[in-house]
Amino acid sequence: MTLSPIRKVYQGIADRRQMFRMFDRHAQRAKRSSDDAALYRGKWFEIDQVGHDTMLAILPPLWIKAEMFALREFLTDSITSVFFSLTIDDRLRFFHAYCDLFDKGSPDRMRAAIVERESRPLKAMTREERLEHIWSSTHDDYRGYADDGWAEHLRGRRTVLVYGGQRGTMLKLLDQLTDAEISAKLPVHLRYLPDAIAA
What we know:
three-stranded antiparallel β-sheet; globular; six-stranded mixed β-sheet; single chain
């Protein structure tokens, strides 16, 4: 299965505090470099109007066009925050996304992907969206990156703390969580959503 490079990383509406926390969901990684664009490119989440309007007021945007604006400050060489105000199903909603501005069509493709994802009549989540939500909502003390204590080929991959029953708590690779572990880490209102087919 090929996952879309554009994907939702948090279910629900992030308030201002959560929005700022999510701007750098990968702050704990050991080696920060300009090659980090893949960590951010195409990731998006919904925010509230207060968060959207706060970001519009902080600095003059790099550009503004219908329904969107881009921040002047770049996260990597070409990745920056783009904020959207979109009417979906007759309701005005607000979103944050990381777009690669070297790719001129990136903001428009992001807009289309958000509208398509949020217009689905049945709320569902892909496995990847479940894992991204777990990563986004887990406190920094309980998530991290595989370090020198892990096999060399696993180093740098994302980890989360899970409860292992009689074995107690343990670190586990995020992408190797079982369905039961994923369910246990999701809030109740997200546990029983049907699986969505990845785009």
